[in-house]
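Supplementary Methods, section 5.1.

A reviewer requested that the exact input to the structure prediction be made available. We therefore reproduce it here, unchanged from the version used in the analyses.
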Amino acid sequence: MNDALLTLLIRGELALTVGVLLALVLRRPVRRALGPLAAYALWLVAPLCVIAALLPAAAPTGAMAPVVTLAADAAWSVRPVSRQVHKVSEILTALWVLGALGAASLFALRQARFVRSLGRLAPSPTDRALLLGQHTGAGPMLLGALRPRIVAPADFEARFQGSARELVLAHERVHLARGDAAVNALVVVVRCLAWFNPLVHHAARALRIDQEIACDAAVVERHPDAARLYAETLLGSALTPMSAPFGCHWPAVGAHPLKERLTMLQTASTSPARKTLGALLVGTLALAAAGAVWAANAPPEPTVRNPLWVQRPGLEDMTRYYPEIAHEAGVTAARVTVDCSITAEGRLENCLVRQEDPAQYGFGEATIKLVRHFQMAPEDRDGKPTVGGVIRIPIVFQDPKA
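The structure derived from this sequence is encoded token-by-token as follows.
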């Protein structure tokens, strides 16, 4: 189980890195050429690459080989036979789980601190959908994940009036309508799972910037005559001193964090034709990247179903490898099923235990020693080559001293 989980983690992490790098490299050129929304949508490349990497590549189904004593059982969960490999896998998996839990705890603490800094939240007397905090300065913002709400500072009514008030609230409503709070919550989950990857944390900040700029563009597009007022309102708004993991607001960064937003506001709005072209190109790029990742998955090894054995273990070998601890415990029989790869010489290697019953007496390790005595012909009984294939071998142990 640990090994399968670790394999999925590595594959997913590599695919995530590919998707994130593509988005980081292309986000600014795409924004200049096709508009802010296309740059924001470009981040879909990353999750699509991960999904493609985790799609099954027609995993091989091991065939039962009629050798030694037959034990035709259904497949159990794959786990490595080697104790050392298994132990390393367990340690790495435990470290990853601990790191993910630690990252989740830190995000939860950051969110709690942020919410506490706002003070008690109460509905605005003029807009029941708007919550006012006891803090002053930062906001308005969208706060929460499952049920996000627009939160504004206590002095919001005094600082933002008339058209300026409507413009800043329109920005938050765009976030709400697009489901950006859920997107940011998903980003937090990914950051927890990939806590060890600094590129993912950097990408999370870049995604938030693209998200905010895309919202700015939507507001300016709906209120083209108010672009100057909107820019002045942004300059007059105070930024949050720290970021809330669950919510939508401009990340707390740098001395001039509004530079990118104001630059975008000075550019011409994106035409419908460019928007359509942007959607098509971004969609094509995302599917192409995901397809490339899926194509890079290792092809399944051919399954040998009708082997021709040159050498097989005999009764003496079965007796020699029967675990002494099992004999002392009075265990008179056991069954083990292994999946093995076939070398150019017809030997078996990289064996994985599919079934070991009972599991606590070392029959898995005994089977690994036993498979050294197998040798397969270069071709099976149907004339198909066996080199590089996989085979499932069921073995029944019986206590020779019983």
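Residues 2-61+88-295 form one domain. These observations are discussed further in the main text.
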